[in-house]
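#lab-general

N.A. 3:47 PM
ok so I finally got the sequence cleaned up, no stray characters, all 228 residues accounted for. can someone with queue access submit it? mine expired

B.Y. 3:52 PM
send it over

N.A. 3:53 PM
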Amino acid sequence: FSMALYKSIQEFNYFCNDVQVRGAYPAFTNRLHRKHGVNSEVLEISEEDLKIIAEGTVDYIGFSYYMSTVESKTGEGVQASGNMVLGGVKNPFLKESEWGWAIDPDGLRYALNDLYGRYQIPLFIVENGLGAIDKVEEDGTIQDDYRIDYLKKHIQSMSEAVEDGVELMGYTPWGCIDLVSASTGEMSKRYGFIYVDLDDSGNGTNKRFKKKSFDWYKQVIDSNGTNL
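B.Y. 4:20 PM
back already:
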């Protein structure tokens, strides 16, 4: 666990959460400003602003989880093409999606424990899913076992975190129905339990078809996550 990694966690996971949960800017704010070329001395912030921040804290943390990242202290390693926010390098021990996103269900358990241990307020996973190319078979079915496997393992990790003592309010996967991917602008990067017959150029019938994952996730909901 290197300082380079910890600084990355501070910047991406802690900075905004510290402000919203604790009601104050964290101690590493000035260092972060210097990193990004911000002159803290000329920022316009009043005592009233700080009072509003202190009084407007949140009751829970909602966050999205799709992948984990690797921080390289030396800058060496193959650049991770799929990590759209953090960058970083590829993790040689993890499989990746067709878009290069590292599949790491254990990372979700770590994130849940880390956030709950730091803030001690309920958590809510608002997005979690696998973007993949889905094939419609001749009989009209979509056998997306890879999506089921991804979600199953992440739900299992979520369950382990609850056993660890994490207070988890809820979980909503991304997403219920195929739509244009926000990260790439492609329809072919599909997340849904329902297939939409449209291609990246908007061509198609717009008809909807249930994927194999649809009925699987229905049973997950019916059993409150115990039947995976």
